Each structure stands twice: as C-alpha cells, then as structure tokens.
Amino acid sequence: MLPKDPEILYSFLNLKLRDNYGSLEALCEDMDVSLAEITETMKKAGYVYDEGGNRFVCG
Questions:
Q1: CA distances to 28, 48 from 38, in Å
Q2: Which tens digits make up the pLDDT trace of 4-58?
Q3: What is the band of 1 on the pLDDT scale with cuts at 50, 70, 90?
Q4: pTM to 2 decimals?
Q5: b/e sequence 5-42, b meaning 16+ C-beta within 10 Å
Q6: What is the pLDDT of residue 40?
Q7: Are 56 and 49 contacting, i.e. CB atoms less than 8 angstroms apart?
Q8: Cα–Cα distance for residue pair 30/58, rounded to 1 Å
Q9: Using an 8 Å Cβ cutoff, are 6 and 42 in contact?
Q10: DSSP characters over 1-59
C-alpha cells in the first residue's frame, strides 16, 4: 500500500527507487500499482519523474 500524502509518497518512492528498483516501471510492476496513476498523482503535487536520475524531482 502506498502512502496517500503526496509529500510522504515522494519520499517513499525516491527511497524505493534508490534502494530497490532500476526504474519507475519496475517499481510499479513489482508493487502492482499503475504507472499512470503514480505519475499523475506526483505531477499534481509538483513532482516529475527524472528517468536519468531514477527519482522524482520538483518540476
């Protein structure tokens, strides 16, 4: 289950991406969550996925 608060979700996702996953796609597949839903939620909170850095950043 993912955190509902966007700021906590931001930290959670970046921690998981840094420590366990080579891409956002791999994280979503493994955790059985929608890539589109995650990116839209994060976009609404002011974050975008940086593929080169494999992390969410302010955007």
A1: 8, 10
A2: 999 999 999 999 999 999 999 999 999 999 999 999 999 999 999 999 999 999 9
A3: confident
A4: 0.94
A5: eeeebbeebbebbeeebeebeebbeeeeeeeeebbebb
A6: 97
A7: yes
A8: 25
A9: yes
A10: ---SSHHHHHHHHHHHHHHT-SSHHHHHHHHT--HHHHHHHHHHTTEEEETTTTEEEE-
